[in-house]
Description:
By secondary structure, this protein is mostly helical. It contains 5 helices and 3 strands; from the N terminus they run ααβααββα. The chain is 53% helix and 9% strand.
Amino acid sequence: MAGEDEGGEALTKKDFEALARFRFGIRSYLRFSEETVRGHGLTPQQYQLLLALKGFPGREWASVRELADRLQLRHHSVVELVNRAQRQGLVQRAAHPDDARAVRVLLTPEGDQVLARLSALHRDELRRMDETLTLPTWNAPSEGGPASTP
């Protein structure tokens, strides 16, 4: 039935409003991001690559396989993305310490500088959008009653 989740509990008008506001916030942020990175000479995918490298947990590099997972792209697509970024001087390849078949992908100093500038703009935009990007909160349904948001 329309408006019911898998648990069978109907969504309220406030639930739909919260979901719509959040979805609008996500799309607004993505549009800001796309326009901002293009204005700085990168594609959105290149920015995501740089961010995935700098933000990789516990180290300053990642393998192509790890980047494919982080970016939710196919391996060959990430290889092409890394090739383009390498030609622009944003990333470099190095030998993988544990796997001779794999390579490490690292940011170059130039890539690090570009990422720092763009990420500061993204951080500031997220701060500005704080309310729009607030996750919807769901109250536990009362006995026999529908779930709702505050």
